[in-house]
Amino acid sequence: MKKNLSIVIGSGSILCAASLGLMKALKRENIQPDLLVGCSGGSLYAAALALGYDPNTIHEMTVDMYKNDIVEGYTSNLRAAMSGETRFNESSGLVDDKILMERLQSIFDEKTFADTTIPLYIVATDFYSGEEVVLSSGRIVDAARASSAIPMIFPPWTINGRLLVDGAVCNPLPVDVAIKEGGDVIIAIGFELPIRRRMNSYTAVTTHFNSLYMNNILKSTFAFYNAVHHAEIIPVLPKFEKQIGGFDHHQLPYIIDQGEKAAEEQLPYLKKLLEN
Amino acid sequence: MAKKPRVALIVGSGSVKCAAALGLWKALDRAGIPIDMLVGCSGGSLYTSTMALGFSLDECISYTKALWNEKVTAEKNWKALLGMVFPKLFKFDHHFGMISDRQMMKNLRQVFGNKTFQDAKIPLTIMTTDFYTGEQVPLTSGSIVDAIRASIAIPFIWGAHQVGDRFLIDGAASDPMPVDIAIKEGAEVILAMGFQAPLPSKVRSVSRYAFHVNGIMTNNLYQSNFAFHNAVHHAEIIPIFPQFDRSIRLFDTDQIPYVIEQGEKAAEEQMPYIQKLLNS
Q1: Chain B contact set for A129 (CB, 8 A)
Q2: Which of A53, A157, A224, A238 has its CA 20 to 30 A from that of B20?
Q3: Interface residues on B facing A, Cβ-Cβ cutoff 8 A
Q4: What percent of chain B has pLDDT over 90?
């Protein structure tokens, strides 16, 4: 019987573009995934792949998505929120999500999970309880928006009456979804968030604490899934020697190359598993 | 006769709720069960330190009230608060915290003076986190005051604390209930007391928001770490999770008697099992 090959693309904003490199490597070997799971930035790539977009389209989508204007205005919004000029509550964010929504809309339009050719799961976090929320129906735009609602930066997003934030808050590399859905072989492409030594604002400090936590949760959940799961989990962890910011779109070719390289290293093992 | 099993007590992060460790201690004391190793994280570092140094239970209760009261958060760090509004004028680094640590340091020195880990009668480890890398940094030497101050440096509230050449923060950011230390040290019976961070249902400011997100991430890290340690470790880990029927927040020191009682209750529930393990 053919084995179910699942691909899990973890959180990592623009670093998630490394999954394009992974897809390149798999395509060359004629290996097709049977199931896709995405978290945060990874949800965009998982969704695009599940919908059958071709790699060039996805590449363009990335270039278009990660322009600096996507986080425009946070400094002045932060000042206004701090001084009490504007209110800040659970549904607030320091960045207007208009541009993000426009871009997601232009990529996914009105497509739903029912339109995917490969089963797709997107992971978000319940804002109040911190629990994992796995999305597998409804509009892709909504799921991707919720999953990539970076805390404080983008406002959380409501789906079916639940306020949702970034999937990375509970499970940056949600291997568990692939395990539950019956993945026999699971490729997990994950990223530790870049840590900066220099911080110049409250938001930078907040982002720093979030990154520390998300990296630790990533390591801890991944260690757990590896320990308890007896099917094969193949980690693909691209290495980046240079510091890459969340919106360094000029680094894209490098990011994709590193993804491809990391995938190449695991290919012989993957092929062996799929052949048995 | 078989070698007596070594018992480790872990008290995880949980601010004032960590006082439940005193209830657990009462129960252990009554049953005549000695502790061979103590590991504390964040609020838990206070109680494991007092136990390790051999303070009496009554001393510990009175110290809790002296250490942990509204006074320690009364003095705002104005530089940090202004910096949040005018980021260009101020530096943002490991020092960032909204509350000045002056009162906290004063209180800690009053209780622990110049005591070091060497003064501990029971081996003690205090868990902290490297501010820059997020790595676990377990402390086992040097000044107790410095170690506790670092371990309780709750993100956003208190700045990082320098120990040696590292800047350290709240152990909860890497290891909220550090069972792994006891595993590495080879304890045969591990009593793990842990707490989930309380979550507000209303968020009314940027700083409350940041604090809330931190709380849910601490809880998720706590759960996944514990799940992992349970999955891979084959000695006995006995969870002691006190149940609180009310919400206990950062400085609810008036709830301490209740907190201690709940800790004792949770310990009593596990006592037959603990006894069985130790006597088998």
Answers
A1: 199, 216
A2: A224
A3: 83-87, 92-93, 96, 129, 132-134, 155-156, 173-175, 199, 201-206, 209-210, 212-221, 224-225, 227-228, 231-232
A4: 43
Residue-wise DSSP of chain A: -PPPEEEEE---GGGGGHHHHHHHHHHHTT---SEEEEETHHHHHHHHHHTT--HHHHHHHHHHHT-GGGGTTHHHHHHHHHTTSS---TT--SS--HHHHHHHHHHHTT-BGGG-SS-EEEEEEETTT--EEEE-SSBHHHHHHHHT--TTTSPPEEETTEEEEEGGGT-SS-HHHHHHTT-SEEEEE--PPP--S-B-SHHHHHHHHHHHHHHHHHHHHHHHHHHH--SEEEEE-----S---TT-GGGHHHHHHHHHHHHHHHHHHHHHHHH-
pLDDT level of residue B235 (50, 70, 90 thresholds): confident
Whether residue A209 and residue B203 make contact (CB cut-off 8 A), yes or no, is: no
What chain A residue is nearest to B91 in terms of C-alpha separation? Answer: A200
Q: Is A111 exposed, middle or buried (0-12, 13-18, 19+ CB in 10 A)?
A: middle
**Which ipTM value was assigned to this complex?**
0.84
Interface mutation vs chain B, best among A82, A169, A219, most B CBs within 10 Å: A82
Pairing state between β A162-166 and A120-126: antiparallel
Nearest CA-CA distance, residue B110 and chain A, Å:
31
Does B220 sit within 8 Å of A169, measured CB to CB? yes
Sign, CA torsion B134/B231/B181/B171: positive
Confidence label for B1 from pLDDT (cuts 50, 70 and 90):
very low
Burial of B200 (0-12, 13-18, 19+ CB in 10 A): middle
Residue A39 has pLDDT above 90, yes or no: yes
8 Å CB contact of A216 and B221:
yes
Report how far residue A194's alpha carbon sits from residue A245's, in angstroms, rounded to the nearest whole number: 7
Report the residue of chain A nearest B155, measured CA to CA. A209
Burial of B234 (0-12, 13-18, 19+ CB in 10 A): exposed
The shortest C-alpha distance from B79 to chain A (Å) reads 12
Which residues on chain A are in Cβ contact (under 8 Å) with B228? Answer: 220, 223-224, 227
Pick from A65, A81, A42: nearest CA to A177: A42
Select the residue from A224, A225, A226, A228 to test the B interface by mutation, using most B Cβ atoms within 10 A: A224
pTM, two decimals, is 0.88
- The C-alpha atoms of residue A250 and residue A74 are separated, in whole angstroms, by 22
